[in-house]
Amino acid sequence: MTIPSTVRVLLVDDHAVVRQGLKLFLGLDPDIEVVGEAANGEEALQEAGRLHPDVVVMDLMMPVMDGIAATRQLRRAFPDTEVIALTSTLEEHKVNGAIEAGAISYMLKDASSDTLADAIHAAARGEVRLHPEAARRLVRDFRSPEMRESLTPKETIVLQLIARGCSNRDIAQDQGVSEATVKTHVSRLLSKLGLESRTQAALYALRHGIATLDEG
Fold first, then answer.
1. Residues 125, 175: one domain?
2. N or C: which end of the chain has fewer CB within 10 A?
3. What are 5-33's pLDDT values in tens digits?
């Protein structure tokens, strides 16, 4: 995965004042460029196709097309663009829906500008960022051990490192191998477990006791 020196961001929220505030705060980071805005999911898909952002910061509750539906379609159409769900709710169906749709991170709108900027840079590196309570709700009822036997020891280590939020580069450095080798391990374990994203892999590790929320 090529990590951009400047992360190009599309802001999606149905409230113009929210978009303006986000644009103002993110503008303080010289390595983040807000390249566009959208007021609903349909506009987000159009703008993503036109602008090809690295990261989309996506509100979930919007008219015309909500953020979950937009995230699902956007990730299918533009797999190289990551989505951060930025919302005001921790309702379980929203948290689960956003992650299952393909969002790499789940943040609340009261997050500090530094926290959001960190999540944007992390998303550009393929790293997961989850609000702590969102993570707890996602893993609370899912801790069975099935499927662990299907992973090789190396894949298990890679999965644990993904759950800690490590990028392929971090994992390569930790394990003393190339990023290409790590990419192969990640691809194989996602396929083996029937998962579509690193976020889902991180949640799988938490749900099945392969990693814990206290690691990191």
1. no
2. C
3. 899 999 999 999 999 999 999 999 999 99
